[in-house]
């Protein structure tokens, strides 16, 4: 196997790094997050038009570049280095894969070219804080005994119908505890009558780019208790009546969130009415998103480490650079090892997405530790909220809250790999 990057992949990295070095420095990032969209719309259009960034992993038949997860991950490694605020992650790594996997031919033809061109942005709206669970990154627990039982039964049926482990856990996921479970809360869907239309009601409080996206892919519960299932629905924000959106305050301003309220809002079912297919598509999208996020976090960790090394080389105490002190060297050496391990794991996950969960855990941990070291090694100025080191520290914390935590990512990966069995008393034991 040749693991070296191709000339095309190297060119993607080089071009994007040069462009972001000119237009996405710390001051430009702070200015961009204060706009209504939460990102620099002019820069986004340039990235879409000149580099085809949102269409990297979209098939050429639908106006995309026709590359794969590896190219998208490489691009996101560079956007991570600059902490670029943009709708790239939500559009290209969450919404586009779901539309590609589940959408009808008419839906793909109508939506994917606009997503690839950057003229339409999209995101995945999941109720509550269940995004990582919905994507299969940290588990698929339904949340209470009744729903767990329903999920187990559905899992057995789905396993018989679809076959294999994927069908089994997909059916268990169809218990839909994180999507409302047929009870109050979450987002509910009901048929509107007529030409297969649907109506949504409920809310999702933490939707990535939810305040600005032109298209929402909404996970909603339907069917009530007898046919309990969660499906995905399309909501066009410019034309949907009964949709209320507001930007939320977030720890990391470069990851803006929106609160979405659906008040009898018209929606279109994405694909077919199949909870098993929906769950499988969400799991696949979760692996893609995790691989992309791992590369992005590795890029951010590498960038903040480089900035810290530059600082300790220039900052002097007692007549010598603080970087010459052995204790400082040891701390930076440890951080360097973490960053390189995270980068290697991210590259492997881009090639083999089944390892994406572990790669994401490695990268998030590397970013958290490295950014914390950056704050400390910058000394008094590093502890001020306005210093750029805090941009990286807040990104590390917010990403782990949204897609982690790290120990749950690793626990999920361990169970999927069969490293634990259930003992007689119902307790997990190591194999």
TrEMBL record:
<dbReference type="GO" id="GO:0003995">
    <property type="term" value="F:acyl-CoA dehydrogenase activity"/>
</dbReference>
<keyword id="KW-0274">FAD</keyword>
<comment type="similarity">
    <text>Belongs to the acyl-CoA dehydrogenase family.</text>
</comment>
<protein>
    <submittedName>
        <fullName>Acyl-CoA dehydrogenase</fullName>
    </submittedName>
</protein>
<dbReference type="InterPro" id="IPR036250">
    <property type="entry name" value="AcylCo_DH-like_C"/>
</dbReference>
<dbReference type="Pfam" id="PF00441">
    <property type="entry name" value="Acyl-CoA_dh_1"/>
</dbReference>
<feature type="domain" description="Acyl-CoA dehydrogenase/oxidase C-terminal">
    <location>
        <begin position="291"/>
        <end position="414"/>
    </location>
</feature>
<dbReference type="InterPro" id="IPR009075">
    <property type="entry name" value="AcylCo_DH/oxidase_C"/>
</dbReference>
<dbReference type="GO" id="GO:0050660">
    <property type="term" value="F:flavin adenine dinucleotide binding"/>
</dbReference>
<dbReference type="InterPro" id="IPR009100">
    <property type="entry name" value="AcylCoA_DH/oxidase_NM_dom_sf"/>
</dbReference>
<keyword id="KW-0285">Flavoprotein</keyword>
<feature type="domain" description="Acyl-CoA dehydrogenase/oxidase N-terminal">
    <location>
        <begin position="6"/>
        <end position="118"/>
    </location>
</feature>
<dbReference type="InterPro" id="IPR013786">
    <property type="entry name" value="AcylCoA_DH/ox_N"/>
</dbReference>
<keyword id="KW-0560">Oxidoreductase</keyword>
<dbReference type="InterPro" id="IPR046373">
    <property type="entry name" value="Acyl-CoA_Oxase/DH_mid-dom_sf"/>
</dbReference>
<dbReference type="Pfam" id="PF02771">
    <property type="entry name" value="Acyl-CoA_dh_N"/>
</dbReference>
<dbReference type="InterPro" id="IPR037069">
    <property type="entry name" value="AcylCoA_DH/ox_N_sf"/>
</dbReference>
């Amino acid at each position: 196997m040749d693991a070296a990057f191709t000339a095309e992949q190297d060119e993607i990295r080089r071009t994007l790094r040069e462009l972001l070095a000119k237009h996405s420095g710390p001051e430009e990032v702070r200015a961009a997050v204060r706009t209504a969209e939460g990102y620099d719309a002019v820069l986004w259009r340039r990235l879409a038009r000149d580099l085809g960034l949102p269409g990297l992993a979209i098939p050429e038949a639908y106006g995309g570049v026709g590359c794969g997860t590896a190219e998208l991950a490489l691009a996101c490694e560079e956007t991570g280095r600059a902490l670029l605020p943009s709708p790239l992650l939500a559009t290209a790594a969450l919404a586009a894969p779901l539309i590609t996997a589940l959408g009808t031919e008419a839906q793909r033809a109508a939506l994917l070219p606009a997503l690839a061109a950057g003229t339409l942005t999209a995101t995945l709206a999941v109720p509550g804080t269940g995004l990582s669970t919905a994507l299969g990154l940290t588990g698929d627990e339904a949340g209470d005994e009744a729903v767990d039982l329903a999920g187990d039964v559905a899992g057995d049926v789905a396993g018989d119908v679809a076959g294999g482990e994927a069908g089994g856990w997909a059916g268990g996921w169809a218990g839909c505890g994180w999507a409302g479970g047929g009870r109050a809360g979450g987002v509910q869907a009901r048929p509107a009558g007529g030409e297969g239309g649907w109506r949504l009601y409920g809310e999702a409080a933490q939707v990535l780019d939810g305040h600005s996206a032109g298209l929402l892919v909404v996970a909603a519960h339907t069917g009530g208790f007898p046919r309990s299932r969660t499906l995905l629905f399309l909501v066009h924000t410019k034309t949907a009546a009964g949709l209320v959106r507001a930007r939320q305050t977030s720890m990391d301003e470069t990851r803006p969130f929106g609160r979405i309220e659906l008040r009898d809002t018209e929606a279109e079912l994405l694909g077919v009415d199949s909870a098993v297919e929906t769950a499988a598509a969400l799991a696949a999208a979760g692996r893609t998103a995790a691989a992309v996020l791992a590369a992005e976090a590795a890029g951010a960790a590498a960038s903040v480490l480089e900035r810290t090394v530059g600082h300790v080389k220039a900052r002097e105490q007692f007549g010598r650079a603080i970087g010459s002190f052995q204790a400082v060297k040891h701390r930076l050496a440890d951080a360097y090892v973490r960053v390189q391990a995270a980068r290697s794991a991210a590259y492997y996950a881009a090639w083999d997405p089944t390892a994406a969960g572990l790669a994401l855990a490695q990268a998030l941990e590397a970013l958290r530790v490295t950014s914390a070291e950056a704050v400390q090694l910058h000394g008094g100025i590093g502890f001020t909220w306005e210093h750029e080191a805090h941009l990286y520290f807040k990104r590390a914390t917010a990403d782990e809250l949204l897609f982690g935590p790290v120990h749950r990512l690793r626990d999920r990966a361990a169970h999927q790999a069969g490293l634990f069995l259930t003992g007689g008393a119902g307790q997990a034991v190591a194999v």
